[in-house]
Amino acid sequence: MTLSDILAALDLNAAGAAPFGLRAGPVSLAVHAPEPLRSRLIAYFGETVCDAAPGADPVHLLNGQSLPRDPDWTDWQREGGKSGRKDAVCDLGGAPRGARLIRKVRSGVTFVQAPGPAIALGPLEDHESTVINFINTQILNRCLREGWQLAHAAAVTDGTRTLAISGLSGGGKSTSILRMMDLPGTRFLSNDRVLISGGDPARALGIPKHPRINPGTILGNPRLSGLLSETRKAALRATPPADLWALEEKYDLIVPEVYGPGRMRLDGPLTDFWVLNWSHDSDRPTQVTPVTLGQRPDLLGAIMKSPGPFYQHADGRFEPNGNSPDPAPYVAALSGVTVCEVSGRIDFDAIAAAGKALFDG
Fold it and tell me: What is the DSSP letter of 98?
């Protein structure tokens, strides 16, 4: 099965209506989506929606369509610390610069990643979050091909100073960055993916994706209280802290609904990068200490993020299965940024105070 076979079997005009546009930094997308998915996506992306620009990268969402036949899938290796099958891939022949099929194992949603249109097909209306991630992946791919580095980080900006925070999964970066959103003048840039471009100054670019947060983040921030029912909050407060910290139960935080309009900005000058290396078991006070990143390769592991199975390099190669990022470009991109290690005990009041001092200048 070739890319030509697949394109011949799909109806790329099924959306009917004209595409809507999305703009993030240097990337413009034209998203072709049928109703009611189209309206739901426009509501979700909100302030980042625009008219589709001429020459924008096309994204086709083909709800209910399927491949002409199932290929031989290969499981994609997950990053360290994660188990279970999530993605499967199949690389296709017959395309001048390569093409790849990716399937979400649990949902059955399938993607065609190739030069030209990016395509999602299958039960899309039942898996809106997966569709949103695919759309944002096209922004990440374009920027990576232009030399940006992908960091596993959350970030806020006031337009002059941008703070990004990394940590291992569940390490508290979302809770920390949302505490920074309580500071006057800050705007949300990203919850989980930050693109970094070196320079004077370095730049940070987020993607139009609202935070998906755990119950512990909600319980620790009165502003977020309305995201949970009183019954659920009571049950969670009775949960042992260690179990609550490990609980995987995600909720969407739509930034304008909680913080008001104009509180998102997807780009800013990257001035500060904090890496969470703290612990519940520590009895030391929380400290934010400048470090030289080239001398602390252990911290790079929390910053670097593999682009995953969707990434196609500029020369047409796809990211190899199990590949790890190269640390050198990250060290270079962050060379002009103040990098700090956050150590000691986990204390969100302390990190919020440190953030206030930072943005107060």
Answer: -
Whether the CB-CB separation of 17 and 38 falls below 8 Å is answered with: yes
Helix (H, G, I), strand (E, B) or coil at 359: helix
Write the single-letter amino acid at 287. Answer: Q
DSSP structure class, residue 220: T
Q: Is 327 left (phi over 0), alpha (psi -120 to 50) or beta?
A: alpha
Cα 196 to Cα 98, 193, 268, distances in angstroms: 27, 10, 10
Phi, psi (deg, nearest 5) at residue 138: -65, -35
Same domain, yes or no, for 82 and 156? Answer: no
Domain that holds residue 274: 149-211+253-360
Work out how many domains the chain is built from and give that number. 2
User: Which pLDDT tens digit goes with each residue over 280-290?
Assistant: 889 999 999 99
Same-domain status, 324 and 192 = yes
| Nearest to 3, CA basis, from 91, 134, 124, 105 | 91
Asked if the structure places residue 52 within a domain, the reply is: yes
**What count of other Cβ atoms lies within 10 Å of the Cβ of residue 357?**
10
pTM: 0.91
Percent helix / strand / coil, the chain, rounded to 5 = 30, 30, 40
Concatenating the DSSP letter of every residue in 62-75 gives EET---SS----EE
Sign of CA dihedral 240, 246, 249, 252: positive
**C-alpha distances out from residue 119 to 96, 114, 317, Å:** 18, 9, 18
Q: pLDDT, tens digit, for every residue of 44-63?
A: 999 899 999 999 999 999 99
Name the domain boundary from 145, 169, 201: 145
Question: Strand 149-151 to strand 87-92: parallel, antiparallel, or no bridges (unpaired)?
Answer: unpaired
> Among residues 275, 273, 277, 256, which one has the least CA distance to residue 265?
256
With tokens 């809106």, the residue in question is 128
Give the pair of three-digit tokens for residue 251. Answer: 């909720």
Beta bridge partners of 50: 21
219, part of any domain: no
> Smallest Cα–Cα separation from 124: which of 38, 203, 189, 227?
38
